[in-house]
């Protein structure tokens, strides 16, 4: 293991010797008193003086460098506290509506609470909430296959299963959010091919040999202002949050939006229809595409929820007070942010946001 004190000591000794040479050249009369103007073996007393000074200054520099993160952390906590917050647990969940009973589109608003299975030795149940609105359509992706066109181009076929009771006039097919949930190499390649390598787009109805040309396209998801995984601070740069979300949870950007079906109405009672995407470049043969590579009705979730805190009595004798969630005394919950504060006394109440 490297000795930091010795490293700082050697750095100070090198500086003193170089500074002594420059001083001797500039002030030879005074350098002669310290024996700094002569080559060869230095004066042992002057050398001990240099070593003592190098040791003292080396320890001082080591202490300053060691305290630098504490200084910057304290400064950032005052100016931009949201930069130091802990990143909560994140995941993607798939909502599975009863397809056979659906007749129209339904919107599940953001904030829907989702609970995990019991985990850990104490069977802790984690509480999550959805971060975006989800539009549930009477559709589901039942099969995903990668084939080849007669001209050699790669073709992705998505079989969309339909509800037999669907009323397509009340469905929302203007933008279907698709989650690319395969392994990272496959999902990344699919994202690239769908958003940048699309050559043609078709719809094939059951029992028909000809396919319908569509003017649709796929756009990348996760970049809109309302696609954030956690609340953004008022003084935070939006680009910083995108970078942080990308490096902490890349699955958020594995969503693509299928645009262009709003003008198409599947036949009443149809059990399925196929969407065929022709690519301009060949699909890599070493990347297998399975049925779970593309999914509908998926949404990111985050382990953030709202709780009240235990009341505090402000005495004016302390500058910091311990804040605990109300009626929750476990070792698994950590406070992420304080959204509002309400103060009260015997005569009135006041709320601070």
From TrEMBL:
Source species, domain of life: Bacteria
Name of the gene: vasA
Species per Swiss-Prot/TrEMBL record: Klebsiella michiganensis
Pfam families named among the record's database cross-references: T6SS_TssF
Protein known as: Type VI secretion system baseplate subunit TssF
């Amino acid at each position: 293991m490297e000795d930091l004190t010795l490293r700082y000591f050697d750095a100070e000794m090198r500086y003193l010797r170089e500074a002594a040479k420059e001083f001797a050249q500039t002030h030879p009369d005074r350098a002669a008193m310290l024996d700094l103007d002569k080559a060869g073996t230095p004066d042992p007393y002057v050398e001990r003086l240099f070593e003592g000074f190098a040791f003292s200054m080396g320890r001082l520099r080591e202490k300053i460098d060691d305290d630098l993160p504490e200084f910057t952390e304290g400064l950032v906590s005052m100016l931009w506290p949201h930069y130091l917050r802990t990143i909560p647990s994140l995941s993607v969940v798939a909502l599975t509506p009863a397809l056979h009973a659906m007749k129209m589109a339904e919107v599940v608003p953001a904030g829907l609470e989702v609970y995990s299975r019991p985990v850990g030795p104490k069977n802790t149940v984690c509480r999550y909430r959805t971060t975006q609105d989800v539009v549930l359509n009477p559709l589901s992706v039942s099969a995903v296959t990668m084939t080849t066109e007669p001209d050699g181009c790669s073709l992705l076929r998505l079989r969309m299963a339909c509800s037999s009771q669907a009323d397509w006039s009340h469905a929302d097919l203007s933008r279907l959010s698709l989650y690319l949930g395969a392994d990272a190499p496959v999902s990344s390649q699919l994202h690239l091919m769908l958003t940048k390598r699309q050559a043609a787009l078709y719809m094939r109805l059951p029992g028909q040999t000809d396919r319908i040309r569509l003017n649709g396209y796929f756009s990348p998801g996760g970049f809109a202002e309302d696609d954030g995984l956690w609340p953004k601070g008022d003084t935070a740069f939006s680009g910083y949050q995108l970078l942080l979300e990308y490096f902490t949870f890349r699955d958020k950007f594995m969503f693509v939006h299928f645009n262009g079906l709003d003008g198409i109405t599947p036949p009443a009672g149809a059990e399925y229809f196929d969407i065929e995407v022709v690519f301009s470049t060949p699909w890599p043969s070493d990347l297998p595409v399975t049925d779970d590579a593309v999914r509908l009705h998926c949404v990111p979730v985050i382990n953030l929820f709202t709780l009240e805190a235990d009341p505090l009595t402000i005495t004016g004798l302390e500058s910091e007070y311990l804040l605990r969630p109300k009626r929750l005394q476990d070792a698994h919950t950590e406070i992420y942010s304080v959204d509002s504060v309400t103060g009260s006394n015997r005569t009135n109440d006041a709320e601070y946001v």
